[in-house]
Amino acid sequence: MKKIFIKSGVALAAFSMLLSACSKFDDINQNPKQASESQVQEEFLINSSIIAAQMDPDVAERSFVLIWKAAAHQQLDDGITSGNNNDGWSGAYYTQISGWLTSINAAVELGEKKIKTGNINEYTANLLQVSRIWRAYLLSEMSDNYGPIAIQGYSNGTNPDFASVKDVYYFILSELKDASTKLNTTQTPGDALTKLDPAYGYDFKKWQRYANSLRLRLAMRLSEVDAAKAKAEFEDAAAGNLITDMSQTFQVQEKPGWDALTGVMSREWDEQLMTTTLENIYNGLGGVKTADQLTDPVYQPYIRAADWAGLQLTDHFPTTSSDPLAGFWFDGLPQTIDPRAYKAFIPAGDFSNPNFSRYPSYNENAWKRTARALMKNDKDTAVLLDGKMAWNGQTDGDWGAKGTLNRWYYWPGGAPRMTQQFRTSTSKRIFFAPWETHFLIAEAAVRGWNVPMSGKAAYEKGITQNFEYWGVSQFVGAYLASTDFNNVGTSVSWDHTAEPPATHTMNFKNGYTNAPGTVAIKYPVNNLYKNGSVKNDLLTKVITQKYIANMPWLPLEAWSDQRRLGLPFFETPNVEQPIPGLPGLNNGNYMTSNVKFYPQRIKYPSVMRNANGKGYDQAVQALGGTEEVTTPLWWAKQK
User: Fold this and answer.
1) What's the whole-number average pLDDT of the chain?
2) Distance, CA of 10 to CA of 389 (rounded, Å)
């Protein structure tokens, strides 16, 4: 049997594991409902809910990373992408978000009771509106994961009724409109109150902007199933104040440790490797040369020609996926690439890069092996691959017999990985940024809705703002003008809507014999969007840029867009053997995109089913009678 070794040019000692220590919230973050009603203030309940919703490391790893990021194809992990459901992970998230809703629902009820009885202060009315806005977000987050949920009943101790996704969304949109209108934006609270709002410091003008922008997001969610409602809600919200500047971003500061403010991507045993989806979207997009981005001479020998496909290794890499470069290993750096790619992911084995993540850090010997991996075939001879500076994503699914011969990306340094800056709990977690507002406006313009700026202006503004966030503004001019296609046939320029050819010729080398060759690489067909007829229309461009810009902070949004529209293009999971969680996918249909090939939701946990059988039955009925990972939500694209 052949063996393939992947080596990297440097051997390192392991970084020691960061110590984790349990820490308690400040007194204001203890359960405020244990106090008497006269002692409870709405601001404590709001603060408790917002902070808890940052997710402690246990639920963050399982929900944010292993479910949301994986489902959004922004981090490599089988799990939900193969249709698997983990009841423990679902139960942990369900329990926690129910707690966040309990706190914020109590704040709403308390504010309403104070106003009804006249027991108010000057901020009572505004705190009520803030509570309603945050509750609306939490309800949307929960519903976008599970589908039908309870709108009320989080604080009265009774089993609540479950509402359909449509009813949940109609309630949320109504709440956001009413709360935004009723906010008194002229109030300026003092320090005692502002310190209890980790997002906006009770700047009520910013809370109003968040309410309106969140309404844009959630109105657009209905675009494919309830277009008239979506348009009316969107246009009404777009007429108000919106998040249009980075200073208005809804974001919360993370901190090291082990509590809810610890970073959502901080767990050291998660590699957080680049996926094939990201590789295919990044590569070639925008026409900016790697040589102009990575100017250190160390990178130059690894930059490959624009028409280079890499090494063909079909004995070890699966080919039963709609990835256009399935079976190839890219042994270097792309000629051109989206400038944000190298900021988000560090090339394999780039150990001198200060942002290279050495996680997982629990195995010292792993870093001595660096990027080396064993890959075998039936001839038992070794093939040595140089993994240093290699730029490869991978596709989940079932690798069949090839999976027993090759899992190269399990070896440290063998694959591009998320930059360390997001792993240290020192960033601000973004819930809504100005670029999302502009991409939503751009999409609305494409749909012909009435919006405050042109689609092109909004699209380019969103890209420009995100380039500023990543620190690559020097490339934005050339990027916006680029007509180069990425690996899935999409370009950047708003005015360039020409479709790519069916195939493009690339050079490669046989990874076993070193024989050169050429291959016609197909641009993939995305059957989920316009029956696969287009790859480079305006909406594809908008969602592609929104997907890149919202990475890594908003994987739930990326997943929701893919479920809603089928955009951007997601390759099918490898299906060398049948995948139990995706019974509709097989080695005869993997080149066709279908909603049954991708996760659509999280299943309700057993703790919920056991505690509220009536509610569970209502939820399943609202889902159409089937409760599976592949059961589409009401607003999702269904084919």
Assistant:
1) 90
2) 11
Round to whole Å and give the CA distance between 37 and 260. Answer: 25
**What distance in Å separates the CA atoms of residue 103 and residue 403, rounded to the nearest whole number?**
46
| Whether the bond into 360 is cis, omega within 30 of 0 | yes
Task: Check: CB of residue 165 under 8 Å from CB of residue 143.
Answer: yes
Q: What is the pTM of this model?
A: 0.93
Helix 204-220, helix 165-182: angle, nearest 10: 150
Which candidate, 341, 356, 559, 552, places its Cα nearest to that of 467? 341
How much helix, strand and coil, in percent to the nearest 5, is found in the chain?
A: 40, 10, 50
- Say how many C-beta atoms besides its own lie within 10 A of residue 562's C-beta: 27
**Cα–Cα distance between 263 and 260 in angstroms, integer?**
8
Q: Which residue intervals of 286-433 are DSSP H helices?
A: 290-293, 341-344, 364-369, 401-405
pLDDT score of 376: 45
- Under 8 Å between Cβ of 428 and 254: yes
Helix (H) or strand (E) holding 518: strand 516-522
Say what the pLDDT of residue 14 is: 23
Place of tokens 């194809």: 73
Query: What pLDDT, on the 0 to 100 scale, is given for residue 415?
Result: 86
Q: Which two tokens stand for residue 76?
A: 């490599």
Give the angle subtended at the CA of 157 by the CAs of 156 and 161, to the nearest 5°: 80
The conformation of residue 628, written as its DSSP 8-state character, comes to: S
- Distance between CA 91 and CA 360 in Å, rounded? 26
Spell out, as residue ranges, where the chain has pLDDT lower than 70. 1-40, 155-157, 361-384, 405-412, 639
Task: Give the whole-angstrom CA distance, residue 617 versus residue 417.
Answer: 42
Which residue, among 305, 280, 342, has the nearest Cα to 489 in the 3D structure? 280
pLDDT, tens digit (0-9, with 9 covering 90-100), for 563-586: 999 999 999 999 999 999 999 999
Distance CA 37, CA 97 (A): 23
Q: Distance from CA of residue 11 to its chain's centroid?
A: 33
| Through-space distance between the first and last CA atoms of the chain, rounded to whole angstroms | 43
Distance CA(416)–CA(208), nearest Å, equals: 39
| Residue 483 DSSP one-character state | -
CA dist 591 and 612 (Å) reads 41
